[in-house]
Amino acid sequence: MQRAGEDRNRISLGHWSTTDWHSLTLEGERHEASFVVSGDKAEAFTALWLAGLCDAEFDLPRGFVADIEVTSPPMKRPDGSVEVEIGALTLDD
User: In angstroms, rounded to a whole number, what is the distance separating the alpha carbons of residues 29 and 90?
Assistant: First the structure.
């Protein structure tokens, strides 16, 4: 919200799932989430919110975000809101 220059609640969580993730040397979690952006100019706000998401820094209580991406193009709904799907991989320290 802050990166998009907005101070009102316009983003709702639609779905969240987390699964354990492991490689030979690393452990973490794979996250999948869908969000709904509502309000005036939802498409423009969504574009601002997602701009630079892959390069954003996140402050987590443990671990770090190793990868984050928009997993499908934002989809405009009939009511004017926009649905966004994001995937992320967090790794333990």
Answer: 5
Are β-strands 11-22 and 82-91 bridged in parallel, bridged antiparallel, or unpaired?
unpaired
Sign of CA dihedral 58, 39, 69, 18: positive
Which of these, 35, 41, 30, 34, lies nearest to 66 by C-alpha position? 30
1 versus 81: the higher-pLDDT residue is 81
Strands 64-76 and 11-22: what pairing?
A: unpaired
pLDDT tens digits, residue range 13-59? 999 999 999 999 999 999 999 999 999 899 999 999 899 898 999 99
If one counts every other C-beta atom within 10 angstroms of the C-beta of residue 72, the result is 11
